[in-house]
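Lecture notes, part 5. Sequence design as translation. It can be helpful to think of inverse folding as translation between two languages: the language of shapes and the language of residues. The source text, in structure tokens, appears below.
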């Protein structure tokens, strides 16, 4: 017999699986400055300046970096704002 705690944990895990998580991936380019990328990530993705700086460095060295994870409906307008700011990003 499963305990109430185990049953609740199973239900929580099942619920988490049904919520599809997507990611905004930011890609490197030769156009935007570090400052522009950092400022845009702070404004659009609600990063701290430190998070935004780390992401910009990762993008610069690896060519891409996941900058936001969440539900598609939350990410879509954010990704659009990144694109409008001249950054290269997509939702996966």
């Amino acid at each position: 017999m499963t305990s109430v705690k185990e049953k609740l944990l199973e239900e929580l895990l099942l619920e988490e699986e049904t919520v599809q998580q997507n990611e905004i991936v930011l890609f490197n380019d030769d156009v935007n400055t570090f400052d522009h990328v950092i400022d845009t990530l702070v404004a659009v993705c609600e990063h701290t300046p430190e998070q935004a700086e780390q992401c910009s460095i990762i993008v610069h060295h690896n060519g891409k970096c996941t900058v936001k994870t969440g539900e598609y409906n939350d990410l879509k307008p954010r990704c659009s704002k990144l694109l409008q700011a001249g950054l290269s990003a997509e939702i996966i």
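The translated text above is only one of many valid answers, since several sequences can fold into similar shapes. Residues 37 and 56 are 7 Å apart (CA to CA).
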